Amino acid sequence: MMNTVSIRFTDKYELKEQIGHGAFAIVKRCVQKATGIEFAVKMIRKHLSGKDPQKIENEGRICRKLQHPNIVKLHDIIQDENFLYLVFELVTGGELFEDIVERKHYSEVEASHCIQQILESLHHCHVNGVIHRDIKPDNLLLGSKAPGAAVKLADFGLAIEVQDQTRAWYGFAGTPGYLSPEMLKKEPYGNAVDIWASGVILYILLVGYPPFYNENQQKLNNQIKAGVYNYPSPEWDTITPEAKNLINKMLTLNPTKRITAEEALKHPWISQRERVASVIHRQDTLNGLKVFNARRKLKGAVLTTMLVTSNFQTKGESGSQVKESIATLKDLDSKENKTKEAISKLSDDLQLNHPVKKTFQNLESETIRKQEVIHVTKLLINDITFGKDQHDFEHYVQLCAPHSTAFEPEAPGNLIQGTEFYKFYFQNKLTSNYKVVNNVILNPHVHLLGEDAACIAYTRLTQFTDQHGQLHIQQSEETRVWQHKDSRWQHVHFHRSDRPPLTMGPK
Ligand code: ADP
Ligand code: MG
Predict the structure, then answer these.
(1) Which ligand is in closest contact with the Cα of 42?
(2) Is 134 a catalytic residue?
(3) Going by CA atoms, what residue is nearest to atom 12 of ligand 1?
């Protein structure tokens, strides 16, 4: 039952919470009214997507052709003036890579099983004349939370249909890091681009970091075009030769010599997994994957923030405004890249054994420390602001260094030392009838100060109700200094300035 005209989405389905998003679409859970069955609906804005209308319809047409246990199944298509609604089976296992890092046991055998399912899905695409063009971890989902749930390939937003197996130039598409050399060289290409990206995935599945990596996109592309990657010690010493052999065949520079999905499925490391693949548990791979995932999520988070902001600002939005905000995003990205370029140059010079790995891990640990600082700041603010029953002086004190200092609006011009001052604050002010409803920190900026200190600056918005139930908004600008000591972050100093509260509502 495919509807393409005149039925309103909301007549048939009830929209629920958001479960995912990408650059151009939002994915929400929904329930079919007639049956109560749950689905996932990908809502694509028709006029603002920056794609031409024909390309928007591409995804639905392609998904309709594909029916395979390892591909997210399309159930229905509906459109109205503003949106195209692609209704998919709801998969509930989350992303494959997020699941793997939670596993107690992980070895080549599990990696082989994952890549087999990815290859099965690609084989089905390729025999049906479809090239996916965006194989990457974000688009690899799991059917359910049950152990052994099927891997499901999603997101045919960049997929194309090809008439025969001759290679051609279908335009530039994909995600940095997973792009094939022929795509980067703007040469004719075909199914083999998906195999290359799967080879990158297989490499990551085995050791937890990518074969090609540089924060500088130009350098990354050059690495890929040269096809230069290696298998550094010690982690690769314990990988079977058969696994390396399959990677070599998938990451073959010449696309006509690269292994096909059908051939790869017959490779001994896949087809005779029980005999060939190693069962040794790879804890270092899981640790590496955690870092790898954290970084992917951070990049995603920046994107969400930007899109939310743009929704906010453009009530009577026009396509050009959204495009503008996407342009700003790219701009920001390139600025960030410039600073990182300096870092990577530095680390390039210092590279001793494996350039890709080193650059990646240095930047990773910075990213993670910044996230930690944001996290402890949020914990601290939670302790201070969350209403009557939830504020927690004991927990707050644990986050602070014993002689921490502060400039507070409550004590204008005086430097406060120690945590005693706050005991009063916790016992009195917070136990009054104020009730915090919502508390957010905006634009947190973390400056890492050497190895064991950091400064965070941000704006805090707190919504609270007073004893009459009236809603107020408090905005303050805060700077906090954290020190990493005795293997934990300790709060050593902060400075806060408040703006006069804003009172909202009819009362
Ligand atoms: P985009 O083209 O914008 O990247 P995707 O199709 O990749 O959109 O969907 C974005 C995210 O939504 C996915 O990464 C995934 O987390 C979630 N998602 C997509 N399809 C489903 C589905 N059928 N069931 C559950 N979650 C889904
Ligand atoms: Mg996607």
Answers:
(1) 1
(2) yes
(3) 20
Specify the CATH number for the domain of residue 353.
3.10.450.50
For residues 441 and 461, state if they share a domain: yes
Shared domain check, 254 and 177: yes
Q: Which tokens hold the place of 365?
A: 């640990």
The whole-angstrom separation of Cα 440 and Cα 305 is: 13
User: Do 301 and 206 fall into the same domain?
Assistant: no
Q: What distance in angstroms lies between residue 45's CA and the mean position of ligand 1's atoms?
A: 15
- Using CA atoms, how far residue 103 sits from 97, 113, 148, 149, 289, in Å, is 10, 14, 11, 13, 12
DSSP state of 146: S
Q: What is the pLDDT of residues 40-81, one digit of tens each?
A: 999 988 775 455 666 778 899 999 999 999 999 999 999 888
Of 321, 334, 48, which Cα lies nearest the Cα of 216? 334
* Smallest-distance ligand from the CA of 157: 1
In a domain, 74, yes or no: yes
Which residues sit with their C-beta closer than 6 Å to ligand 1? 19-25, 27, 40, 42, 72, 88-91, 138-139, 141, 154-155, 157
| 300 & 234 share domain | no
What is the per-residue pLDDT across 8-34, written as a single tens digit (0 to 9) for each? 899 999 999 999 877 678 899 999 999
Q: Is 225 left (phi over 0), alpha (psi -120 to 50) or beta?
A: alpha
